[in-house]
Design brief:
- About 15% of the residues lie in helices and about 50% in strands.
- It is mostly beta strands.
- It has one domain: Lipoprotein localisation LolA/LolB/LppX (outer membrane lipoprotein receptor (LolB), chain A, Clam).
- The strands form two sheets. A twelve-stranded mixed sheet has the order 8-9-10-12-13-2-3-4-5-6-7-14. A two-stranded parallel ribbon has the order 1-11.
- The longest helix is centred in the N-terminal third of the chain and has 20 residues.
- It is globular and about 50 Å long.
Amino acid sequence: MKRIIIIIPALILCMVSIAQDQKIISDCTIFFSINSSDSEHPDIGSKTIFIKGKQMRVDLETRAFNQTLFYNSGTGSATVLKEIGVSKYIAQYNAGEWKRSNHIYDSITVTLNDSEKNILGYHCKQAVLTLKNGDTYKAYYVPGLIPSIMEMPFEANNIPGMVLEYESTNKRRERITYSAQNIDFKPVATHQFDIPQAGYRVLH
């Protein structure tokens, strides 16, 4: 009986210690560079992720197009703005439609390991992601920083920490790497999530 009495407080202290080591991040901006395995055109562009509570905005800038995603994890709904040259488009998705449009990321298997990498001064752990089509990718995350929206980013969903580097592939099967260049923890202005209502062609 004495052993049980000793062990239980030890477990409680351990759980409290783990909880204290984790910090929920509900306001931040992360700036990523995007690079391709294509040796002729390695620099693709940039990606900026804004997080505020249950809202996320993702700005993607490339040579071919610019795109902005607005996502609400509370409702599961999303709005996508896309600019190709002078043409502007807007598409709105309810939760079911958005989930279907990202079906390739359903049932991602996440395998955590002890490999580490220093990114922006953070000791990041490695996760290996396996999609249901068999493709595998690597991602690096900060275990102690937990974003308030776990869908950040969709390609590296459900990783237990702030993702600072991750991979994906494009239609030409080139390996694309997203690497964080800076993190800003200042509160994100609410106007960053205002969705424009004019000047865009609606896509159904």
